[in-house]
Specification:
Largest sheet: 5 strands, mixed
Helix content: under 10%
Shape: rod-shaped
Strand order of the largest sheet: 13-12-18-17-15
Number of helices: 4
Strand content: 35-45%
Radius of gyration: 52 Å
Structural class: mainly beta
Length: 463
Amino acid sequence: GTIYNFDLTVNTATILAAQGGTNYTVTYHETQVAAAAGTPMIGTPSNYPNNLNPQEIFVAITNTTTGCLSTLGFFIEVNEAAVANAYANAYEVCDDNMEFDNNTSNDSMTFDLSTQDAEVLGGQDPLNYSVSYYLTQAEAEAGDPATALTSPFTNTVNPQVIYVRVDNDTPTTDTIPVDSSLCYETTALTLQVNPLPSFDLDDSYMICANTNGSEVVSSPAITTGLSATYYTFVWMGPDGNIIPSETGPSIIPTEGGNYTVEVTDVSTSTLTMCSSSDTTLVEVSQPPLIEATVTTAAFADTHNIEVTTAPNGVVSIFDVSVYEFSLDGGAFVSNTPDDNMYTFTDVGAGEHVITVRDKNGCGEAITTVMIMDYPLYFTPNGDGYNDTWNIYGIQDQPDATIYIFDRMGKLLKQISPTGQGWDGTYNGEIMPTSDYWFTIEYREPNSGSNAKKQFQAHFALKR
């Protein structure tokens, strides 16, 4: 069986104390007969190798005053030595938040130390062997439960080395304790907090769509800013499914919605690879369909043009198009909070160019609108400017009738709505500078009615 050199004499003081006096001698024997006879004695009781396991040792207690002798026995037993198996790897956990200070030495987490019992025990029965953890080697050697670490344990530096003690707690048949210094062993364990991949996607990104509302004109890359050498990437699209073709640190979005990336650090460890994720919103903006309408009647004192927009293509909740409006190349203006319509007021007669552009820089749309009214004057001097007079915005009513009179009511000319207009002559004679009158029969634009109206007013011919 297992042999161990026992120091039996460590029990002498306990035996004598039980006798209640000092006039006693204690001798150790291998048999009850020898103990009762007082001989033969174990020659070197302080270094006695057992020959059985367990083995009963007999003690002769002699009163030196009376010579009386009594005996007792106790067992010595060599228990299997405790083994603290060395850990193959550090005990690693992932940090619980992203950190951007590039300093992992102060990262801390809680460690469930009990999860490390099985590896240090190896095949030793946890019913007979106990595991405890300590901050220092000295504390582990002392084995004082008061200094043992409680679990879960929060590390104070990163990485941190702690010490593990394995004790053999197998019950023995000893009636008097013997040396049990070989019943424990210690080893070291490294606690390590691995950092999460640290990155921050923008809260939102913008893509521009063309006039059919689906083809992407321009799109910024959603990027993590991390290296594919040290990290792996899994991207999920707006439908929540993984995008198999996207495995790099950035992605070019093709539609609006929420995009999520899960990043795994494959550089710090092959055992505990840490992952983190972030989500961003991709919004879509596009040039509009526009409609410009004159909301005032023909020949009104003032004219207003209302411009409205409509989505150009498929509309989704991620469309964020907002617009601003320009009249005849003037400054762009917009309403707040309604950025999808605008009314230009006190607009002059004639044709006007309306430009609407996307505030996000995703294109513009242009249309023209005609306000039906008349020029207040014209100058038929052959310089190419205002050389003829006609009604603005009447060209699409070829059946309209327009008559021009002098101040005395004499009919000078009937002009065509689709022609160049009056050139300021009558039967080939040049008419003088003066006021002239006109009448017109027309249909009100934008009214949807075929009923004709009549209007008359005067204008000036200037030489």
